[in-house]
UniProtKB/TrEMBL annotation:
Species, as recorded: Microthyrium microscopicum
Alphabetical keyword list: Metal-binding, NAD, Transferase, Zinc
SUPFAM superfamilies referenced in this protein's UniProt entry, alphabetically: DHS-like NAD/FAD-binding domain
Family: Belongs to the sirtuin family. Class I subfamily.
Residue ranges occupied by any Deacetylase sirtuin-type domain in the UniProt entry: 22-370
Pfam families on file: SIR2 (PF02146)
One MF annotation (Gene Ontology) recorded for this entry: metal ion binding
Listed name of the protein: DHS-like NAD/FAD-binding domain-containing protein
Length: 375
């Protein structure tokens, strides 16, 4: 069965705290250190798989749009685009790419924060053996030697729906600038005014900018109908064969913009949109990461997406210890912890309702000093 990305808008349970001493920072540090260092090395199962979500990118200036109560706190009227809308609608795509065009420079200017660096360090210490992330910001690229599955894809590329070729988002951005000079002027003004780079939503709102975590910005009153986007360069060079055996048709205007008379060569962001299936190889890689680990630590995720929740459930179903380090409730946590806690199982789960940026630095220090004491 394909894994489809669907939004989850129900309220989350009240976060648990396990063990009770993890209510305060020192107890949380001790509990997480023990959880991470007591992973077994038996057979092929080794170490911890780290599952991350939007919560760890907040400190990079990306909004965690669900917030701790699970509501859309940044922009209540924001509704993500669905895959079928993107696929079927030229107008939807114009709107999507216009907003994405304005949002990209701000996202591009942001980068990994201390939590990403600590995850990298835990990889070097061989505590983490792999990472599964729901984030599309590519910040986990700072640890290329720690294998990372990007469950929901990534914004750094556009992908052709017809031929599957990836194209760098930066080059695509330049093409959008060339095709939409008035928008390019607007974006340059916004960059100059600091509206795009600021993390202060009040300043952004003063300039009519509202952001959401997909790197997308709302411009109230702006018309998207004249926005132009390019066709896939690969399909343009060599018209593709469609699933029905016919040759795909790609029409462009005098500047190279995709025209509605085409039936191929549409570029989409290389993220898994809502309503879109996760690629089989990505789903398999994520499951293999879980199956090959001894335990799972969730950091900065409410597990709101089914695909991520399902991976945590998979681990619990296999009897693996589960840790959750997340500020705010996490989908299904009551059921998870009821099953793995209880008499004699105290050390098999950790639930910390604190900020990872606060808890992880002393945990990494503690593990480092344990290691140097042994050497
Ligand atoms: Zn193509």
């Amino acid at each position: 069965m394909p894994s489809i990305r669907i939004p989850y808008t129900s309220p989350f349970p009240v976060p648990r705290v396990i063990p009770p001493s993890a209510q305060e920072l020192p107890g949380a540090i001790a509990a997480l250190t023990e959880f991470l260092t007591s992973a077994k090395t038996t057979g092929s199962k080794r170490g911890t798989v780290c599952l991350t979500g939007a919560g760890i990118s907040v400190a990079s200036g990306l909004n965690d749009y669900r917030g701790i109560a699970g509501a859309y706190i940044v922009n209540k009227s924001f509704r993500p685009i669905y895959y079928n809308e993107f696929l079927d609608g030229h107008a939807f795509r114009k709107r999507y790419w216009a907003r994405s065009y304005v949002g990209w420079p701000g996202l591009r200017a942001k980068g990994p924060n201390s939590v990403h660096h600590l995850i990298k360090r835990l990889g070097e210490l061989e505590i983490f053996r792999s990472v599964i992330t729901q984030n599309v910001d590519s910040f986990h690229q700072i640890h290329p030697s720690l294998p990372t599955v990007e469950l929901h894809g990534f914004l750094r590329s556009a992908i052709c729906i017809t031929c599957g070729t990836y194209h760098p988002r930066d080059e695509f951005q330049d093409q959008l600038s060339a095709l939409n000079p008035a928008w390019a002027d607007f974006v340059n003004q916004m960059i100059a005014s600091g509206a795009i780079s600021t993390e202060d939503p009040t300043i952004q709102k003063d300039r009519g900018l509202r952001t959401n975590p997909d790197g997308d910005i709302d411009i109230p009153g702006a018309s998207y109908s004249t926005f132009r986007y390019p066709a896939c360069p690969t399909c343009l060079r060599k018209p593709p064969t469609l699933p029905n055996g016919q040759q795909g048709r790609i029409d462009i205007d005098q500047d190279g913009a995709w025209l509605e008379s085409s039936d191929a060569g549409i570029l989409k962001p290389a993220v898994v949109m809502f309503g879109e299936g996760i690629k089989t190889e990505v789903k398999d890689a994520a499951e293999a990461a879980i199956d090959g680990a001894d335990r799972v630590l969730v950091i900065g995720s409410s597990l709101a997406t089914y695909s991520a929740w399902r991976l945590a459930k998979r681990a619990v179903d296999m009897g693996m210890p589960l840790g959750i380090l997340n500020l705010g409730g996490t989908r299904g946590e009551e059921a998870f912890f009821e099953r793995i806690s209880g008499e004699g199982k105290e050390r098999t789960s950790v639930r910390i309702n604190l900020d990872a940026a606060e808890v992880l630095p002393p945990v990494v220090k503690a593990i480092e000093s344990q290691r140097s004491g042994k050497n």
